[in-house]
Amino acid sequence: MANHHVVSFSSAAAIAQPAPVIESDLNACEPADGIVGQSPALNEVLQRVRRVAPTDMPVLITGETGTGKELLARAIHRKSRRASRHFVAVNLAAVPDTLAAAELFGHERGAFTGADRLRVGRFEAADHGTLFLDEIGELRADQQVMLLRVLQDGQVERLGGGAPRRVDVRLIAATNRDLAADVRDGRFREDLFYRLSVFPVRLPPLRERPEDIPSLAEYFLERIASRLGRRFSGVEHASMHRLQEYRWPGNIRQLQNVIEQSAVLGDGGDLEVPMAVFDDASIGAPGRLEESEVFAGHPTLEEIKKRYIMHLLTSTHGNVVRAAAILDVDRRSLYRMIARYQLRMTAGDQECDLPRGGD
Question: Of 251, 278, 305, which residue is a domain's last?
Answer without folding.
Answer: 278
